[in-house]
Structure formats: C-alpha cells, structure tokens
Design brief:
By secondary structure, the protein is mainly α. It has three domains: 56 residues, Homeodomain-like (Arc Repressor Mutant, subunit A, Orthogonal Bundle); 127 residues, Tetracycline Repressor, domain 2, CATH 1.10.357; 94 residues, no CATH class. Helix content is 51%, strand content 7%. It has eleven helices and seven strands. The strands form three sheets. The protein has a three-stranded antiparallel sheet with strand order 3-2-6, covered by helices on one side. A two-stranded antiparallel ribbon has the order 1-4. The longest helix is centred in the middle third of the chain and has 28 residues. The chain starts with 7 loop residues before the first helix and ends in an 11-residue tail after the last strand.
Amino acid sequence: MNLGGRDTRERVVEAAVQLFSRQGYSGTSTREIARLADITEASLFHYFPHKQDLFWAALQERIRHIRIRKEVWHLLQQREANPAVVLPQVIELLVHLAIYHQDLIRLFLAGFIEMRPPTEHIYRRESGPLIQAISNYLEQAVKRGALYDMDPAITTMSFTAGILTHELLWPLFGGAANTNTGEAVVAHSRYWLNALMPGYRAVVPARIALGRGTVDFPPVVERRFTGVLSSQRTVCLRSTATKPRAEAEGEGSVVVAAICDGCPTVPSRIEEKNHESHHRADCLVLAFGFSCHRDVC
C-alpha cells in the first residue's frame, strides 16, 4: 500500500481508511496507521488528537466520493414511472457502491459494531434521503398496482442491504468477487423485478443504458395497457421474431427497437382499443417505459 506523493494529512486519512476498513476500529492501532502513513505516531496526533477523530475522518473521506446521479432522483420522484425502469437505475447505483466502494461499506459496518450511536447518526444523515425516496416510490407503486402488495420499508432495506453486502459475503461461500457492474445489475434487476412486479418475465433481450455504461439487459415486461399511456412510448414485438434488435441511446435512458416485420408505427400516446384495432394478434405489447427512437418498431 503505497501512499507516497500525498501531503501528510491525506496520507494519514488514507492509511486509516485502509486499516480501519480491514481490521476494524479496535483491531487497528494509531501506531499502525502512522507506520503506513510513513510518519511518527507523535506527528499523527498533531493532526488527529484522538483515535476516534481519525475514524470519523476516514469515514467522511469515503462518503464524499459518493455521488447520486440526478436521473435517479428524478425517476424516484416520478410516482407513475414504471418500476422496470426505475429499479434497475437504483440497483445500478447500489451495485456500483458494492463493487467500487467496499471500503465505505466496511467502515460503516465497523462503526455499527463498535461505535453505533454516532455511526447511526452519520448513516441517517447521508443515506436517509435516498432510502426514504426509494421507500416512498415503492409505496406509490404498490398503491397503483404496479408492484405486489408488500411493506415498502422492509423491501427497501432488504434489497439495499442485500446488494451492498452481497459482494462482501459471496466470496465467503466460495463465489468469485464480481468486478463487472453490468452483469451484476442484470442479475439483481432480474431477481427483484421477478419478485416484486406482477406479470414480469423475460421476453426479449434488450440493452439498458445506465449512468456508467450500456449493458445487455434480458428481462422485459409483458403487460397489457390499461387506459392512456400519457408518459410512455410503447414497443411492439412479433412473437415469431427470432432476432429482435435492441439498442440504447442517451445517458440514463432505456431504449428498445425490435424489428416487427411490417408492424405499423406505434404512437407515443395510444388507447388500448385503438392499439388493438391496428396491431396483429401475433404482436406482443410491451409497456416498459421505453422511449422508442424508431419510426416503426
């Protein structure tokens, strides 16, 4: 662990992050931190008079690197947004944290075990708004029938805690550490959408454009319309199509363009009765919250 090239305080904090996150609070001495930072223990106390001060500085150092994309906040505030669009975006955020910010998760776990009250305060302050936004969205989705009847608070904590700790615990059971964000997003999204969303099943491969890249995203929802889809565009797919084409465009957007062999243009606002009158019976109607950028589906 080479901490050279940084100023003294930065080296001390980074050394504290690395040791506290791996050895816990009680298992790490200030002498070890000073040695890793390449300073004397007396010099360390010049910057941080108490060991606890150093732990909180280490935790805040990792917290400040976390950025939640505006698209995620925007989707969670849209109470009518399709869960098949919203949840993968939230899951992508959690997967990114689980894979690339494991030091932060370990520091929180160490704090919960050894210094619970102040750690809880920091956790609520930093994570509370996101957790509450997810829970509020799930509650609204349940009320309008987009998700199964379930407790939104329990569900929120179940999938957030499960995803965040999965990458830490899975290697203990013989699994390989996952370094592919896209594959992890697909796996977790498939699991949770199957568990929470009525009528959900994999129909056709698609691609999902997340905040940090575009990945293959097999699950698609097969559902029938109920009324006017004022905020959604629709995609039509022939059940006999063997090689539907799926593309994605735009950061944070999800786009499906499937070739339907002559199926007419699908307008962005359409009532069920009008749709049924001009689409053949061998087309599956996929209401997935996608924005289709093709003239024909």
